[in-house]
């Protein structure tokens, strides 16, 4: 049963309109649907974007995926038993190890990692959200205008069948770094663009593990800094590397094999027949944020709100934490009796998380990979701490939870009722694992 907030809700197409069917938009939709909120998700593309993007999710994001009930589905797609105990390493291009996080560093009582291609995670989220009668997912719906009326927001959408208008109490823009929602709201995207290209490739058929690689490694090198990691049990790997800024896109694509020759382990010269390039996507690296994640009845989350280098593992992880936060705040306002000002708190806190966590960590790791002499990398304080003890590594891992924030703490307190029932997965999976919450 769907509980409506007031009579006006009956005259609207939905209570929340979400724009963008990436993982951030789909997770926002799913969490709202699970709380009985009437939600419509619109996406300009004819289906979910399958270009190579994220593949691994930080601890704070894993908490939210567990709460939504999709984490194990994602693991089933992206992982096999050996992946749970494989280390993450920082190495030189000739495989000298500089530092690592290993299975022995896992904090007791915390969730297992999640590795799953962004496209596959989005498909899982779509499948879960589609089960709810209070949810609609509409592809081929491109947002073209946003107008606010008293108590509602109206979006004009362009479809293959013509123009369509949808009304809601609130709108959430999760439509990526080139966000139309952000532009329609007149919000800037402040920051800078790194000079290098990032080239994200999906590669199959190459025996990385046979040549000494683990499930995931960062290579420190001024010219060939990169991330090489396993995406799924079928032998698909992600190879994300930098390319010279003065090359054209066509030159970047023509130089893929030469880059692989430099970065791949194993015998040289590297044969073009030893691997299959499944997908390649060159794009620019950005460190940018909107000045506010709220304007009127519209909010921003994920890349629509901010962008960062993927080499710090903070991009989609931040987006997932945004999605959980904006969903919890909207549930608070629409279902829990919270004031509308809770949405200002969302905008303020998530912007602070980007400014003081996501940006410095992501840019710092990029610079660490790019600007460090590989032979002297072990002298950096980051690796000195990492290599000092297991306890030190666990403290570093605890810090990863800072990116999350539980906005449900601002809901009205309800007296606990004791039941002789097994608590739900979402309840068991959550607050104990929010190790750090600021």
From TrEMBL:
The lineage's top-level taxon is: Eukaryota
Q: SUPFAM superfamilies this protein is in?
A: FAD/NAD(P)-binding domain
Q: Which Pfam families match?
A: FAD_binding_3
Record's keyword terms, sorted: FAD, Flavoprotein, Monooxygenase, NAD, Oxidoreductase
Gene Ontology molecular functions = FAD binding; monooxygenase activity
Asked whether the UniProt record includes Ligase among its keywords, one would answer no
UniProt keyword DNA damage, yes or no: no
Gene3D superfamilies reported in the protein's UniProt record = 3.30.70.2450, FAD/NAD(P)-binding domain
User: Which InterPro entries would you find in this protein's record?
Assistant: FAD-bd (IPR002938), FAD/NAD-bd_sf (IPR036188), PheA/TfdB_FAD_monoxygenase (IPR050631)
| Record domain FAD-binding: where | 13-353
The entry's protein name is Para-nitrophenol 4-monooxygenase
């Amino acid at each position: 049963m769907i509980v409506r907030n007031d009579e006006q809700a009956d005259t609207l197409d939905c209570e929340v309109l979400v724009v963008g069917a990436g993982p951030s938009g789909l997770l926002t939709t799913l969490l709202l649907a699970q709380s009985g909120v009437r939600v419509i998700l619109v996406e300009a593309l004819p289906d979910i974007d399958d270009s190579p993007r994220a593949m691994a999710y930080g601890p704070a994001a894993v908490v939210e995926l567990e709460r939504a009930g999709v984490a194990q589905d994602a693991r089933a797609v992206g992982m096999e038993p050996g992946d749970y105990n494989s280390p993450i390493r920082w190495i030189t291009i000739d495989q000298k190890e500089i530092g690592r996080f290993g299975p022995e560093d896992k904090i007791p009582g915390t969730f297992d990692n999640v590795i799953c291609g962004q496209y596959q995670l989005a498909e899982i989220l779509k499948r879960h959200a589609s089960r709810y009668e209070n949810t609609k997912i509409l592809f081929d719906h491109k947002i073209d205008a946003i107008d606010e009326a008293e108590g509602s927001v109206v979006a004009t959408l362009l479809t293959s069948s013509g123009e369509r208008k949808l009304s809601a109490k609130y709108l959430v823009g999760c439509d990526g770094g080139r966000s139309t929602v952000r532009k329609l709201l007149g919000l800037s995207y402040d920051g800078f663009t790194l000079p290098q290209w990032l080239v994200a490739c999906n590669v199959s058929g190459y025996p990385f593990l046979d040549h000494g690689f683990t499930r995931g490694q960062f290579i420190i090198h001024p010219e060939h800094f990169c991330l090489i990691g396993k995406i799924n049990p079928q032998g698909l790997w992600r190879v994300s590397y930098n390319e010279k800024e003065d090359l054209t896109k066509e030159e970047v694509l023509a130089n893929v094999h030469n880059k692989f020759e430099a970065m791949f382990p194993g015998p040289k010269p590297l044969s073009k027949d030893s691997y299959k390039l499944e997908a390649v996507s060159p794009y620019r690296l950005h460190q940018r944020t909107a000045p506010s994640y709220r304007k009127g009845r519209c909010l921003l989350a994920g890349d629509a709100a901010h962008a960062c280098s993927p080499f710090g593992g903070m991009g989609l992880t931040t987006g997932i934490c945004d999605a959980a936060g904006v969903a919890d705040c909207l549930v608070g306002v629409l279902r829990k009796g919270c004031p509308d000002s809770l949405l200002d708190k969302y905008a303020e806190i998530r912007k602070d998380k980007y400014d003081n966590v996501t940006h410095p960590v992501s840019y710092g790791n990029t610079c660490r990979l790019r600007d460090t002499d590989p032979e002297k990398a072990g002298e950096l304080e980051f690796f000195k701490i990492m290599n000092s003890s297991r306890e030190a590594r666990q403290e570093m891992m605890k810090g990863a939870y800072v990116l999350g924030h539980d906005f449900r703490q601002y809901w009205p307190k309800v007296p606990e009722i004791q039941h002789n029932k097994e608590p739900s997965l979402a309840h068991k999976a959550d607050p104990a694992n929010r190790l750090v919450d600021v």
